[in-house]
Amino acid sequence: MVLPSRFSYSPKWWSILACFVFFGACSAFMAYQATNNSAGVIINGIITLGPTGATAFYWVISALGAGFVVLALLMAAQRISNPQVLELGTEALLLPHGHFQKRTSRIAYSDIEAVSEVQVSGQKFLYVTAGGLRFTITASLLPDTDTYVAVRDFLVSGAQKQQREASST
Question: Which secondary-structure segment (H or E) carries 145?
């Protein structure tokens, strides 16, 4: 791999759009149900709500859907205004992290103690441990699977090299 290498590290446009459309439709449907409701609802045969309770339930579900629409808009705005980049530099990894990835950490390759991969519900995560902290690289935020594999292999080989050098001294 040629260093330095920079890779986009943001949610994909299609996932932001899918979130916006799906939750927007859910919110609109539940708002329609709430405004036109005249009957109660039984939830899983356990909870019984009268017409007033059902209307309130529909409004709550509509508001939750609208909340996810707002989150999708925030993700789109953040992606446009502050594009995030994962960079493999000559001496360190630059990794965006934190809420909405507002911070960037510089992780020197010599400080990397361990690199491990975890898969949860089909989503791959790469954990990079350095200086007693664990950083996460999320595969779905990289442009494609090949990029994730290249980053993973580069960091794993570097971590193994550091461990061999540390054990030989």
Answer: helix 145-168
How many CA within 13 A on the CB side of residue 119? 2
Q: What is the residue whose two structure tokens read 């932001």?
A: 16
The string of DSSP letters for 73-93 reads HHHHHHHHHS--EEEE-SSEE
The tens digit of pLDDT for each residue in 31-50 reads 999 999 999 898 888 999 99
Task: Choose among 120, 83, 89: nearest CA to 107.
Answer: 89
- Domain co-membership, 106 together with 65: no
Q: Which residues contact 131 (CB under 8 A, 6 or more apart)?
A: 107, 111, 113
Is residue 31 assigned to a domain? yes
State which residues form the domain around 128: 85-168
Band (104; pLDDT cuts 50, 70, 90): confident
Which pLDDT score, from 0 to 100, does residue 129 have?
A: 92
Q: Note whether 117 and 136 are within 8 A (CB).
A: no
